[in-house]
Amino acid sequence: MLAESREWFFWGRRWATPPTTPRPTKLITVLRALLAIAVLITLTACSAGSTAYSSPSAATITIGFSAEPANLDFTSTDGAAIPQALLYNVYQGLVRLDAQGKVVPLLAKSWTLSEDRRTYDFQLRDDATFTNGAHFTAEDVKFSINRVKTAWTVSTKASMDVVDHVDAVAPDHARVVLSKPSNNWLFAMAGRVGAMFTPTGTADLRTTPIGTGPYQLDRFNRGDSLVLKANPRYWGPKPTFGTVVLKYFADPTALNNALLSNGIDVISSVQTPDSLSRFETDDRFTVVQGTTTGEVVLSFNNARAPLSDKRVRQALTYAIDRRALLATAWAGKGLLIGSMVPPSDPWYEDLSNRYPYDPDRARELLAQAGQPHPVLRLRVPNLPYAVDSAQVIRSDLAKVGVTANIEELDFPAVWLKEVFAGHDYDMSIVAHVEPHDLATFGNPNYYWGYRNPRVGALLAQADAGTPEQQVSGLRQVASTISEDAAADWLFLLPNLVVAKAGITGLARDQVSDSFDLSNLGRAS
Q1: CATH 3.10.105.10 fits domain 291-494
Q2: How confident is the model at residue 45 (pLDDT cuts 50, 70, 90)?
Q3: Residue 140: C-alpha distances to residues 81, 171, 189, 264, 343 (Å)
Q4: Of 116, 118, 90, 85, which Cα lies nearest the Cα of 186?
């Protein structure tokens, strides 16, 4: 909701210039009393409610987001909005990703890996406590990892398939034994799948998250905001802000206006990049520009005709002018990549020219496939980058005889249910922000329905091999899916953050699932 401009008029202002007729002293005393009461009522109204558009206090920070969580349970609900709010802030794992994307200790003080690369021994913190009062121990590690395998229902649970068993050796010593060596497992543990739970804190994860992080849930105002407050039991440094309000905006213009009108302190991700100049030229604000792991993907339903035909997918990829799309839909901010690998990954290669813009070649391939004029459903989430990109894509495809009917779906609930889970689409557009998500193309049950046994074999070899073999193997995977036109990678999202001047601790690059609140501060 766009913040309204409000002025408060006090009754006492009517008496700023005394009338010429003298008033009895008793009446003046009464009026002064009424003035005091009015001021008190007005000030109370101004400060009531943590989600009101008033200037936050030094102990409160309000951050604007564009995508609201459907609920608070990332063990049963896919999508990035839940871990964005809760991972590292409420939930913590044994390890985490630092600002450079490196795995570093969190609830584990340290760990060792056996020579056969199958056994991890974690030495745990002995001072961490869950927000319900339960003490964190190795039994919680065992419970949490086993629960991924038995109770989680989201796609990320596959990361735990490689675990053979977990032993609680001592309260501060957990041992995880893998069925085979895995380069991916420890990295995955730095994401949502590695979150630690207590057996006494999983009764209602959709509304009541229980973690060991610096914050705990205060309240979730559906359709408006998520409010976190500092965890008094937190084992680490006390966060600067005692209250954090995550405010959700469906309208990107309203998101910008909320910062301009002092309604919020930070825009977590600017959804109208062409508006950056208005902040860059205003010394009230600081603009942070970096990169992310968010590949904006035009996904093809490889399991459904006509997109099951490689020639059709290739034709669509040739038909789209991605450089012009980036300039039109995202003000030229971002990077053309050509596959499911951002430059922050060691196996990155620039594949953006694999399918240059070539409408004539697109028409030839469509004719060869016997599909000169296909009609396709382009079902996209109602997010700015997706809607704006869809308009450009529809226009480009029309030039080669393809009709793309755009359907906007509420995100996350409807899009996740019908497209991601139900596979009811021909094409879609969404940013895949999870790090190291190339492996999704090895899962034929994933929503793009891509099946290539060679890719699956390469992924397995890369996971079990040496670091050098991992890099080589994953480069082959990226090249193969690009050649197959398994999807069309439109561009890599930039990290565009705007904050009030003096807000510190904002990450330049977004390399994990989390919008980490623990480092935020305010310059004195």
Answers
A1: yes
A2: very low
A3: 25, 9, 14, 37, 35
A4: 118
Six-digit token string for 360: 């004539």
Q: What confidence tens digit (pLDDT) does each residue in 112-131 have?
A: 999 999 999 999 999 999 99
Spatial neighbors of 198 by CB under 8 A, at least 6 apart, are 130, 132, 134, 136, 140, 143, 210
Please tell me the pTM assigned to this model. Answer: 0.86
**Are 429 and 365 a contacting pair, CB within 8 Å?**
no
Edge-to-edge strands, sheet with 215-221: 215-221, 225-230, 243-248, 60-65, 266-267, 487-500, 285-300, 427-432, 375-381, 403-409
Q: Please give the structure tokens belonging to residue 405.
A: 């009917």
CATH topology match: 95-194 vs 291-494: no
* Cα–Cα nearest to 442, from 158, 215, 167: 158
Task: Give me the amino acid identity at 327.
Answer: A
Q: What are the domain boundaries of the chain?
A: 95-194, 291-494
Q: Which structure tokens are listed for 228?
A: 């976190």
Residue 80's nearest CA partner among 88, 91, 69 is 69
* CA triple 490-494-497, angle to 5 deg: 145
The answer, yes or no, to whether residue 15 has pLDDT greater than 70, is no
Tokens 């034929």, located at residue: 444
Residue type for position 468: E
Q: What is the mean pLDDT of residues 270-278?
A: 95
Identity (one letter) of the amino acid at 284?
A: R
CA distance 229 to 241: 8
Instruction: Indicate the range of 9-18, 438-447, 450-459 predicted with least confidence.
Output: 9-18
Cα gap 85→213, rounded to integer Å: 12
Residues above pLDDT 70, as percent of the chain: 89
Instruction: Provide the total of helices (H) and of strands (E) in the chain, helices listed first.
Output: 13, 18
CATH number of 95-194: 3.90.76.10
What distance in Å separates the CA atoms of residue 42 and residue 37, rounded to the nearest whole number? Answer: 9
Q: How far apart are CA 90 and CA 101, in angstroms?
A: 20
Angle of helix 359-368 relative to helix 310-319, nearest 10 degrees, comes to 160
Digit-coded pLDDT (tens) for 385-443 = 999 999 999 999 999 999 999 999 999 999 999 999 999 999 999 999 999 999 999 99
* Model confidence pLDDT, tens digit, residues 241-263: 999 999 999 999 999 999 999 99
**In this model, does residue 369 exceed pLDDT 70?**
yes
**Among 69, 51, 79, 72, residue whose Cα is nearest residue 432:** 79
Distance (Å) of CA 53 to CA 67, 107, 237, 245, 285: 19, 36, 29, 11, 18
| SS3 assignment, position 429 | strand
Q: In this structure, what token pair is assigned to residue 416?
A: 């996740």
Rg (CA), the chain: 26
Q: Which two tokens stand for residue 171?
A: 């309260």
- For helices 467-483 and 453-464, angle between their N-to-C axes, nearest 10 degrees: 160
Q: Token pair of 463, please?
A: 């996971």
* The token pair that represents 202 in the structure block: 């999983």
Residue 338 falls in which region: left (phi positive, over 0), alpha (psi -120 to 50) or beta: left
